[in-house]
Structure formats: C-alpha cells, structure tokens
Amino acid sequence: MREVYIVGIGQTPVDEHWDRPLRELGADAANAAVKDAKIDCPQALFVGNMLSGCTCGQENLGTVIADFAGFNGIEAMKIETACASGGAAVRAAYLAVASGAHDVVVALGVEKLTDLPIEGTTAALAGAADADYEAAHGVTFTALNALMMRLYIERYRVRKDDFAAFVINAHNHAKSNPNAMFRRPVTLEDYARSPMVAEPICILDSSPVADGAAAVVLCSADRARALSDQSIRILGSALATDTIGLGSRRETLRCEAIRRSAQLAFKQAGVGPQDIDFVELHDAFSIVAALSLEASGFVKDGQALPFALEGNIGIAGALPCSTRGGLKARGHPVGASGVYQVVEAVQQLRGQAGDSQVKGCRVAMTQSVGGLASVAVTHILGA
Amino acid sequence: MREVYIVGIGQTPVDEHWDRPLRELGADAANAAVKDAKIDCPQALFVGNMLSGCTCGQENLGTVIADFAGFNGIEAMKIETACASGGAAVRAAYLAVASGAHDVVVALGVEKLTDLPIEGTTAALAGAADADYEAAHGVTFTALNALMMRLYIERYRVRKDDFAAFVINAHNHAKSNPNAMFRRPVTLEDYARSPMVAEPICILDSSPVADGAAAVVLCSADRARALSDQSIRILGSALATDTIGLGSRRETLRCEAIRRSAQLAFKQAGVGPQDIDFVELHDAFSIVAALSLEASGFVKDGQALPFALEGNIGIAGALPCSTRGGLKARGHPVGASGVYQVVEAVQQLRGQAGDSQVKGCRVAMTQSVGGLASVAVTHILGA
Questions:
Q1: Which of A14, A166, B92, B176 could lock B46 by a disulfide, CB 3.0 to 4.6 Å apart?
Q2: Model-level ipTM above the cut of 0.85
Q3: pTM above 0.95, yes or no
C-alpha cells in the first residue's frame, strides 16, 4: 500500500446552524481544507454523513457537495456507518489514495440535525441501532446506551458521579476551541444536578445534537512533500464491526468492534497504546468514553474511571483525551464528528491547538464509533 | 494499483418482497456470492444502498448486513450515490482490493422500496435530485426525466414511439432471466397504449420500483488464481459527477458524468467503445438508455434511437444492451441495480446467460447512473 498523508484541514463551528443549508456547511469545510492544503481541486470527495435523507430530504450527497464546493465533475460518494460515518469517510479516502487511484482527495464529514423537531431526530438516530429488533420496540439510542452504563456501574461497582471526570475534562478542553459548541466549564456539582435523560444517563453525560462539517485533505507521499513541510502521516487505519444488536453479544461491555479496530490500527502502525501521546475519543456518552479507553487497551477493563479521576486524561496528563472538547463539548454532528477528531488531532500534531496544546506530541489516535459500538474506525496519526 | 478480479456472484429475484426484511435480502445475496466464490468469509463488505433510512428506518447498514450474513466483525460500510449506489459499492470494493488493504471483499447492492406507500417512495426518490432547488418545488424524479426526454424529442426531431425499441429489447431479454421482475414480452402496440406518468414518459418507459439484492466477490490476482478458473478481471473502474441540478448545466443532454466515467474507464482498460461486446445500461427510463449510449461514445449524439431501431441492441446485434432485462424488465431496486448489472455481465462472460447468452463475448461494460445523470459509475470487465 502507498503511504498516505494529511496536508489540509477545515471545519465550520459546531452549532445549531438554522440559517445554513447542509451543502453550504459541507462546502465551507471542504474548501477550507483545500485552501489550507494549497491545492486547487481534489480528485475525489468522500462524504461521511448519516441522516441527510431523513433530516434534509437529500441523498446523492457526494454529488451535491462536490458541485456546491466547485469540485467540478470529480469522483464523489457518501459513506455511512451511523455515528462513525466521519471516521469511515477518512478510511474510504485513505483507501483511495493508498490504492494509487487518486493522489489528492478530500474526506468530509457533514451533518445537519437541528432543522427537524427533536422527536424526528431522535427517531432517525435510532436507525444506528437495530431498527427491527431494538428501535421498533420504542427504545431510543440514549436508552440503549443507558443499559450499557447501568451494567457498567453494577459490574464494576463504580459511582455514577465518577463519570463526571470525562465531562469536566471535555468542557475544560473546549474552552480554547473557537469551533466548540459548549466552551463553558462544568463542575461536579453541575453534573450531580443534571437532569436525567434515560437513567443513569443525564444531560451532561450526553453530547449535543448539532450541525457542522469538517474536512481533511489526504494525499500521496510525493504530493505531501511538494505541498507541505508539516504533513501528518496516517500510520494506521482500520474499521471493524460487531453485532448490530446489543442482545446478541456474549459480553456486552467488551466492545469487540472498538477492540479489533484499535488492534488492527496499532499493528499496522507498529505501535502500542503506550506510544500514543493523546487520543480523540468518541465520547458521545460518557459511558462510551470509558468503554473506548478499555477496549483500545489504554487501561484494563473496569479501570477507565479511576484512570480519569486520577487526572490522566487532562492536557498535561499521561493520556490527554478529547483535547479540543470531544463530542461532548465541541458537539456531535453525527456523521461529521469522526472528521472533526482527525482535524483536531492534526491541529495538535502541528502545534496549533492553542491553550489546549499537548506538549511534544508526536503520535495520536482518533476513534469514531457507530451504533452501540457496533462499528468503530481507528486512525493513528504521526507528525 | 493491484489487479482486481471477480470470483463470485449472487442475487435474489427482483420483486415486491413484502415478506422479507432488508437484511435478509442483503445477506442472501452476499452469502450466495460467497458460496459461488467458494470462500468462507470476506474481509470487508461494501453495501450500496440509497434509502434504507427513509424506507426501513435502518442506517448502519454495513454492520447490519455483515452481522446477519455471518461475516463476524469484518470491515463494513454503506456507500450511497443515489441510483448509482450499487456501481459505487463495486467501485469502493475495487479500491479496497486495489490498495492492498484487503484480498477478498464483497460488494453488495440492496434496496427495499415497496414497504412504504408509493407516495413515500416517490418523495424519498426525489432526494436523488436537488432537494432544495428541484424536489422542494414539487417536481418528482420522473418529471425531471420527462424534461430531458421532451428536450431530446424536440432537439433531434424523433418520434416518442421510437423509444419503444429499448423497452421491447429489455423485456425480450428478461424472458430467460429467472430473477427478472417482468418476463413477459411487450409490443409496440403495448407501448403506444401505455398510460402517461409524466408526459412524454409512459409507464413502459419506466423501470419498476422493486426490492432486491445482488452481490459480487472481488479479490486480488493471487486469490483469483487459487479460487477460480473462470475469474473475471475488472479492466477499468471510474466514477464521475456532474452538477446536481439539471438547470445548472450548459448542455442538458450531454450527460458529462456518464461521458467522463466512460472515458476514464476506457482509458484505464486500454479499450474503446468498439471493443465492448455488450453493455448493461442504466435504463431506469428509456431516455436514460438513449443518452447513456451517446455519452459513452457508442453512437453519436442524437443517433441512439436509429441505432436501437436497426436491431443493434439485441442479443445478436452489434452491441447487445441490457442482456438480462436491464433496469426496465429485470427491475430497479435502486441501490442494488448497479450490482445486478455486474452480476449479469459476469454471467455473460462466463457463458451462463442461457437463452440470452451473447456469443463469444470477452469484454463488457456496466454503467450505473444516479440522479439526473449527476453521477455515473462505469466498469469494464474482461473474461
């Protein structure tokens, strides 16, 4: 396989963009990345998106964004793996460059969720789970995550309030991110007071439904040398799945898709968890952040909460997590989040992360998770 | 790039499968292809589908099908380019093998359209066009194609009834295809009597809304040699786009996406239109069949109808088209059709096409078109 590099990044703020159509958000992020990479037009566009059909009546999204961004006639397709669609778009773009079919491509993630009444968005998001055997019975996506959190609390005898460590950390890191949705800090008291959504998941455990778009320019080694002296190499890239339904798993808390995608990415990169300087976690719910740290091998099963509580996940900690606010505080425009993670990792590796800069970082992991951890995409990036 | 081969095919009948869920159709076709290839489990699954979210409430379709097909834990993602989603899934699978990331993968196309009331399906299908600037004004996808057909009739001074040549041809070829939806022949009289849908498009100009799934197994040269003595090589693969809206084009009838994808595929394969033994056309409407022949370079602009009327597109003609019934008579389960085309081309190249076998064929073209020809995927296959 050819080596693949990242030479450009772009993003819109994550927010409730009621005044801006889906295509405009997508084209703005894509064009910002293209400008950052100092190229004219990519050869292909891979658009990560989950719900454009249900929330905007628009399919054929690759064509729509390529057209509106001014990428006239190029190859373009939409990639969907539920909440991991952004990570999967980066993966598809990686394969296109690695194959030799293209030298310069854009991976874009874009989502617009706030135009629908929230009941409509909630119903559509349940399509990330098993529509026939889970969602059809009325369970929401949050309720399914609540089952995992409840089991975790009972299995490992932890306190619900200990999950606050992930939330406080994410909001802290978002303060210096101008594109983050929630830049105010939260306290343990805020968390304890936070209203329940689906017990034990409270509002502050949950990432916000939001609109936004993020993009990266991927290219071959030759083009990377010509375009940038700060290109970031994709050292590892892997996507794995698990059963779609939570009830079909032998061990609910093992998160096999996360585990396998991390192991494959580590193996390709020739590194292990101890070599990762920081990680952009899929903290859509705080339980998913904890399970991701465990399944990826950073801590043993059941050890994520003590690890977080001991200060390891802060910017100066042993393993800074969600360094620009994560899905929790930057916001979670579903199919875009996986690309935001890569954009933010590149900012860190370039030394452009402002007050939340991780000192001396060289190797990053980004991990995008979909459904009830039924699909996961892991990338390892090196400066 | 590594060479890529097809070593297995599978399909379900195209029909109104009210009794069979989306995942079952998809898994059946995928497993049939895997069995045909004599492999245990592919390393990745690329699912072409347009509307699973809107028609079945199910996103995360790659995971769902991988799980239900028994492909435990593999890489899986959904690929969407509207009506060309099947072709794009083959393209994505091709890139995955060409890159070296995987040696054996499945490209699946699956769609379930008949569970919704037809108004719902019609509205969802309009998402293949420009949702904000075309569909929002109430125009249906058929009406937009009717605008192209009307312009064609006026520009080239042809008779509406001459389009019947494509319809009669497709129905003729479907007779020997046990998976085709309409296996009865139609006559010029039937066509002339056919009720209007959106003038000048009549019912017999239109492919039927349907359910179905088709799959192909793609692999590397090494694996192809080990698995099969009848493997088919992908000689050319290309995807191109055009403006999403019909109104933004300089020349409405030029179909730049079809033109460009055909030219790129010819160039990669090192062949030209004269070398193609038969073509599986995207005859969703008879006007699209005509425009595809012209934009692909088989005939000059405006010459498709005389070409068809002179008997060239029949099995014994100069360029057999839609040899197993095409979208028109085999049926058009939207995101699956592009994979059905590849399955049918492989049947021909293997000599397994029964009464509609093209004698001595060696090189085939399949072409999957999405939106108002705003996206097109062309593959050239060699025996």
A1: B92
A2: yes
A3: yes
